[in-house]
Amino acid sequence: MTRLYQQVLFLLLSFILIVCINVVSAQSNSSSAPNNTLQQALNALQLAEDAHAPTLANAAYTIAQDAYNQAQLFDAKRKNKDAQKMAEKSIRYAQLANIEARYQKLKTEVENKVTENAALRRSLLLGKSDVTR
Amino acid sequence: MNRLVLIACMLLCGSGIASAADSVLAETVSALTVRVNQLDAESQPGSYADLERLRARQAIAQITEVRSRDRDDAIDNAEVLIKIADISIKIQQLNTQLTQLDRDRDGIYVEASRRDAELARKEAEQLRLKVLAFEEEQANPMLANEQIPEPSQIDDSASQAQTQRVVDAKAKEAELAKLEEEITAQMSANANSVLKTKSNNGKNRYTLQGTAFEPGKSKLTVSAKTILKVLAERVKASSKDFIIQGYCDDLGNEKNNIHLTKQRADAVAAVFIAAGIKASRIKAEGLGSSNPVASNKTQAGRAQNRRIEIY
After folding, report:
1. pTM of the entire structure?
2. Which residues in B15-41 are b (16+ Cβ under 10 Å) and which e?
3. What is the pLDDT along chain A (133 residues), one digit of tens a residue?
4. Non-local CB neighbours of A48 within 8 Å, separated by 6+ positions
5. Please, what is the end-to-end C-alpha distance for chain A in angstroms?
6. Nearest CA of chain A to the CA of B194: how many Å?
7. Mutation for B interface: A74, A117, A128, most B CBs within 10 A
8. ipTM > 0.90 (yes/no)
9. Cα end-to-end distance, chain B, whole Å
């Protein structure tokens, strides 16, 4: 009985040891510096800004900007893995913001053209002479 | 013994928690996969945003492959990529709509310029007749005396104004004719992509591409209608009968495809009939996805297969 107890205890201790090693390795952030990813995130944010994302896709752009700021903070603390994750998050949300902004712009353009064509058709039906290029 | 039971209970609880977590993960992956499948359906028939949908699928596949501590990030990544694919499809649909709106606007301008030119012609003709009548009156003193007792009373300024109106109307007519010519030339440039003539066993075959219709509908675009009117005018003098066959790509239900192609063929036949060709000389058929002229595996091939052929 005592022997079985010792075996179970040994197994439990081994399990706890393995878990601890994993946790420590996860926190050590020993991978290479994410400078390249940070630069990519900055570029993606710039592209989103060029597409007027701060006004047309504010939610996604804000998440991207916050993630970039956090990535910078982690980078300053040499927590490279966390910085890498945050920079990647910033990139994907900046891309989302960029495409959302383009979509909003295009949508407005289509709505304007629909209105314009409807007005032209109305003028044509009413026989007005202002239907010219 | 009690300790053993306790350990066994702990292990059971642990495995229970693990299986519950697996079940939640499976549900999440399944929900994301359903969303991508919906996007696949929405992207038809244009097969839009292929790359974005592929990236979303890859991101979903990665969720189960990454370590548990990276799983939340992987799920977030997949969700964002699905949103990007969704918006990309919408952007491509809007671009198609934009092109269609531009064509419609061109059609409106052509109609407007024709109408204006016609009005100007009528006005010029009326003025010309008035001038002729006035000149005849001047040339015939008897008639002039009857109608206008004192020649000196003829209002020179009125005559000049009338002449000026004739000149203005002629100038306007010339300007409108030039504008019409310019727009028609642009329409013809578009028409080349819409309508092609090919020789097939000695017969002329006219092919109208699927872009002549609104997507998924049987309504002809304004520009396509204009082109068909021109074609009908050109061929109506011929004594031959016409066969109009509608085709589409192999996407979707074949029964629906046949129905849609028949409606499209009927729409083309209606333009011919309106142009003065007898209905008894026209046979309209919907042949669905049969007789493809290109591969249905590519987007470009499918676009070529969506067509109307007129013999």
Report:
1. 0.52
2. eeeeeeeeeeeeebbeebbebbeebbe
3. 677 888 888 888 888 888 767 665 555 554 554 689 999 999 999 999 999 999 999 999 999 999 999 999 999 998 998 999 999 999 999 999 999 999 999 999 999 999 999 998 888 888 765 565 5
4. A54, A57, A61, A64, A94, A95, A97, A98, A101
5. 98
6. 22
7. A117
8. no
9. 93
